[in-house]
Amino acid sequence: MIRKTILISFILALGIQSLFAQEQPLKDFAEDRKENKFCFYPSSLRMVNLANNPDFDELVNGIEKLLIYSLDSTARADKSYKELIATYEELDYEELASAYGGELNFYIYGKERGKASEYIGIIRQEDLVTAFYMRGQIAMNKLPQLMQSMGEGDFINPFDFNLDDFGKHTQDQ
Amino acid sequence: MLFLSMAIMAQGPVIKKYFNELEDNENYTKVSVSQKMFSMFTELEAGSDAENEFLEAVSKLKGLKIIAGDSVADAAKMYKKAIADIDKAGYEELMSVKDAEENMQFSIIEKDGIISELLMVVGGKKSFVMLSLYGEIDLKNISKIAQEMRVEGLENLGKMHDDHDNDKENDTY
After folding, report:
1. Model pLDDT for residues B105-122, shown as the tens digit of each residue
2. ipTM of this predicted complex?
3. How distant is the alpha carbon of residue A91 from its chain centre?
4. pLDDT digits over A16-70, tens only?
5. What is the secondary structure of chain B as a DSSP string?
6. A19: enclosing H helix or E strand
7. Nearest CA in chain A to B69
């Protein structure tokens, strides 16, 4: 009986480990290079939607977890985030979209794991580099409207780490 | 036969050449959107007729690549070179617009009535854009893609459809 329990526990532990292991390379990479870290779950994601934008709620509805790191000046200078992309390519993540060479650089990779897809991305804007990991589904058709709302300041942009703006916005409410 | 059709659906030779040539040139932004990204759109349930048309339009696309620069010193020369490369590669010219501000040309690769690539080149005084949409392309749906995907330069695809509509109206009267 004890042996059976141990065996079942071991199998369950393996299953859990394989389910959550894919965020680990990002965590390992960002641990010594992060300036800020944010972790969002469905409830906290809805909290950044200050103007109750329905497009945003629909977009994040299927997201189970979102990890966001802003990387420090060393990571920005040595572009070591490219090693992180290579690591995820080895884990069979496929390139979904990329842009590089101009002011905005980003790399987005994804992998389907059953119903819950996983995504990893690097976004570089001027002197800010952000890395993220996301598990769940995202309503892609809501992205264009959402991008527009971001410009109008309807909600806190979780990829914008300028906390002064956040304070300004909440005081305006 | 399978290999032939895969080759037909692959990214075009001209955009591939320019991507390689301008890989490390910071004056140009290079954007890639993979088939996987397009398939993420098509997995969504359409909420309206417009969304349905858009999802149908992107369902057969294999990818999108864009090269764009807005402070190109030799933009006119680049445009001329690109047009020469397009002609040399055997593309069929679909439409071209020339005015004081910028020149624009749409070209396609078509085989057995199926358009496998639509290539747009825009050359301004200091700007240069090359956009390649590849897969199985229905020109009737191009304006829908142009409207829904707010990518700089892609709105020009809508002009092509408008022009086709105008041609049809002119033919009628």
Report:
1. 999 999 888 889 999 999
2. 0.74
3. 17
4. 444 555 889 999 998 888 888 888 888 888 887 777 777 778 778 888 888 989 9
5. -HHHHHHHHSPPHHHHHHHHHTTT-TTSEEEEEEHHHHHHHHTSPP-SHHHHHHHHHHTTEEEEEEEEESS-TTHHHHHHHHHHHHHHTTPEEEEEEE-SSEEEEEEEEEETTEEEEEEEEEEESS-EEEEEEEEEE-GGGHHHHHHHS--TTTHHHHHHHHHHHHHHHHHH-
6. helix A2-20
7. A102
Residue with tokens 């800020």: A36
How many residues are listed for chain A in this entry?
173
User: Residue A145: exposed, middle, or buried by beta-carbon count in 10 A (0-12, 13-18, 19+)?
Assistant: middle
Integer distance in angstroms from the first to the last C-alpha of chain B? 44
| Residue extents of the structural domains in chain A | 20-172
Nearest chain B alpha carbon to A119:
B37
Question: Pick from B28, B36, B150: which is nearest to A96 by CB?
Answer: B36
Lowest mean pLDDT among B5-9, B19-23, B99-103: B5-9
**Residue A33 DSSP SS3:** coil
- Contact criterion met (CB < 8 Å) for A96 and B148: no
Strands of A53-169, DSSP E: 63-71, 94-100, 104-113, 116-125, 128-136
* B128 to chain A, closest Cα gap in Å: 13
The residue of chain B with its CA nearest to that of A111 is B36
- Closest residue to A101, CB basis, from B25, B149, B150: B25
Q: Which of A94, A102, A104 sits opposite B36 (nearest CB)?
A: A94
Query: Are the C-beta atoms of A99 and A105 separated by less than 8 Å?
Result: yes
Q: Which of B18, B37, B128 to probe by mutation at the A interface, max A CB count within 10 Å? A: B37
User: Does the CB of B39 have a partner CB in chain A at under 8 Å?
Assistant: no
Give pTM, 2 decimals.
Answer: 0.73
- The listed range with the strongest mean pLDDT (A42-46, B61-65, B79-83, B112-116) is B79-83
| CB-based contact, B45 to chain A, within 8 Å | no
Contact assignment for A97 to B150 by CB distance below 8 Å? no
